[in-house]
Amino acid sequence: MQKNTKSQIESSLLLGGQALRKRFLLKIGWIFLLLVFVVLWVMFSNPNIADHFAGKLAEKKVPTTEALIPTTRTLKRPIEPPKQTSFCSFHSVLPEDVLELEFLKNHITWPETPSVPANFYLQDTSHPAHSTFTILPRDGGGSWHVGDQLKVLIKINDFLGRPKKSGGDVLFGRLHDPTVHAGVVGKVFDHRNGSYTAVFSLLWEGSAQVEVTLVHSSEAVTVLERVNMEKPGRIFFESIFRSGSVTEATNCNVCLKEPPEQLCNFTDTHTGEPWFCYKPKTLKCEHRVIHAFKGFVPQPTGNEAKLFQSGVNLKVSIPSLGSSNITILPKLKVPNKTVPDNVSGEATRASPVGYYYQGAWRPLDGTTVHQFNDATAISQCLKGKVLHLYGDSTVRQWFEFLIAKVPDLKKFDLKTPPQTGPLMALDYKNNILLTFRCHGPPLRAFPLPVSQFHFVANELDNVVGGTNTVVIFGVWAHFGVYPVEVYIRRLLSIRRAVVRLLTRAPDTLVVIRTGNPKRLTLRESLTTDDYYALQRDKILRAIFKKVNVRLLDAWEMTQAHYLPHDLHPPQPIIKNMLDVILSHICPQR
Fold first, then answer.
1. Quick check: bond before 47 cis, omega within 30?
2. Measuring CA to CA, which residue among 430, 423, 387, 384 is closest to residue 408?
């Protein structure tokens, strides 16, 4: 009996010990699994460690030629961890806009241009003085008549007179008659082999002269594209931070490639439009009070700057081979039905939006443009209206023109910068309110308070709208130095605001000013170039194509006019632009 009891006790102790060992091993297993999980989590939550191990695995799988050669290497530990890059980007849009971004980038695809090595020879590039254009015979033969299409063949040669073999040059064409102040823009088709066809609509009787201008060589386009991709921050801005007697200044831009902890993030909370400044040394980000344009780093420089020489290869006329003049007879009763040729899959037909005759703009979309030649006519049209103008200095021109033309439209002194505003004028007698506010960053402007530095989309959301409200904006000139994504993002946020405005107040008249060509020098090409403006003009038209807005075509109205191109078009062109706008406001004058 005692023996059995002893055996039972020993057996119980043995089983208890085994159970304890099992529980102990189970605990050790769980602890080991937990440690493995922690190690893996640390590895893969740190991209530097993860990338390191991934690289090592790749080296194991695919041995390189170097790996097969026995070598002795000394691996150095980094002195400091690699910097974390900023979370901002010059190339970002909202996730819902990615597909439209790709469409718009394809929409402005430029023909392939030659590569430009650092040691290129200028003599191999496009030269207007050695290039030519020739007026081609009328389709079907005979004389020229109103309603015909005039075709001009352009051949581009280099400085030695050798024909170019590729396309991509920036060319402008204009048909004009100085005696009656008539002019129309031609459409240029690139054959991508060094030759081009310019097509002009014949819209008035009498004489007409063809003018073809080489704005940029194809090699210059290569440089402009590269500079915009590689040096998007070449224009930079400054913010002033102030608290009491302490003042600090730091650089700012759409994106700054520094760790987030070194930046002040001023991205707009409503639109998501990015803007960053370096943190001041002693003050806080909240102490920012002033925005200003600071300067730019010259690009291109050195040998590449030779591609932007005024009077040589920058916006220079191309000579004609033969006569550059034609005589246009009255329109035929039976129109010419010759089917046009095709160039690169496109019908070679001009489609201008309008033309000048006797100095007055005549749209071809059916709009009747009235002449508002005095203060009374303008005041009667604007009576009871509210006009909100937003944008850059090319829109501010209209504000200044109106208050100079209408004495009763008194400008209020709001103690704000005259270049950026906000500005306001009132005509109590006729109940007219006129306002102007500049668009937000990246505005190249004199110092202005950040409290008055608003995005256009946010301003539009504060407009009540209605039958007596007119909204006019132009956003283009300050975006040329950046990759197109920056401009596309801004316009898409503005379009959303326009749609919201027209949804709640569909009777609101919205007018959008396009960009325009300008006088070019090397410095101008660095900042607000015609090539950049042309690309962004196409983007603007595509983005607002299906929105119920009116486009004020400043591009053709400037290019077709007899006066030289200017960033701020001269008074005769401004007067024509406002005649168009006022005709939209008062179509039944």
1. no
2. 430
pTM, two decimals, is 0.83
Q: Which residues contact 412 (CB under 8 A, 6 or more apart)?
A: 424, 425, 426
The answer as to whether 332 is a domain residue is yes
- The pLDDT assigned to 12 comes to 46
Residue tagged 């500005």 (tokens): 423
Answer yes or no: is 546 within a domain. Answer: yes
Give the Cα separation of 480 and 293 in Å (integer).
15
Residue 343 within any structural domain of the chain: yes
Residue 230, burial from CB neighbour count under 10 angstroms (0-12, 13-18, 19+) = exposed
400 vs 201, 372, 438, 522, CA distance in Å?
34, 16, 14, 29
- Provide the CA 531 distance to its chain's centre, in angstroms: 11
Contact at 8 Å (CB) between 482 and 90? yes
| Residues whose CB falls within 8 Å of the CB of residue 428, separated by 6 or more in sequence, listed in order | 408
Say how far apart CA 416 and CA 292 lie, in whole Å: 14
Amino acid at 357: Y
Per-residue confidence (pLDDT) for residue 301, from 0 to 100: 84
User: Are residue 332 and residue 372 in the same domain, yes or no?
Assistant: no
User: Where do the H-state alpha helices sit in 507-567?
Assistant: 522-527, 530-543, 554-559
Computed from CA positions of residues 271, 273, 277, 279, in that sequence, does the dihedral angle turn out positive or negative?
positive
Percent residues over pLDDT 90 in the chain: 73
pLDDT less than 50: residues of the chain? 1-17, 20, 36, 38-84, 338-347
Residues 504 and 486: their CA atoms lie apart, in Å, by: 28
In angstroms, the CA 568 to CA 395 distance is: 9
Q: Which domain holds residue 478?
A: 361-585
- 456 near 435, Cβ under 8 Å? no
